[in-house]
Amino acid sequence: MLINGKVLVVGGRNSSTIFDNVEIYDPLTGIWPMTGSMNIARYGHTASVLTNGKVLVAGGIGNFSILDSAELYDPL
To answer: SS3 for the chain, per residue?
Structure first.
């Protein structure tokens, strides 16, 4: 959960696709607007909210390989 009470959803996969989507869910409105894309599609990663409000997305799996990269997302 972000510091503003919204929920950031990044990446993921289904049976055939790895996603690079970035969406923010607003529980007050029930809306899921897309806010952009990650540089690398990934799933199985971690997403940590930092003290400055930014989110560090690290590791995971992308295109059938383990990723050793990270991305920084600013939801503000």
So the answer is: CCCCCCEEEEEEECCCCEEEEEEEEECCCCECCEEEECCCCCECCEEEECCCCCEEEECCEECCEECCCEEEECCC
Tokens read off for 15: 């049976």
Tens of each residue's pLDDT in the chain, 76 residues: 898 899 999 999 999 999 999 999 999 999 998 888 999 999 999 999 999 999 999 999 998 899 999 999 988 7
| Phi, psi (degrees; rounded to nearest 5) at 7 | -120, 125
Reported pTM = 0.87
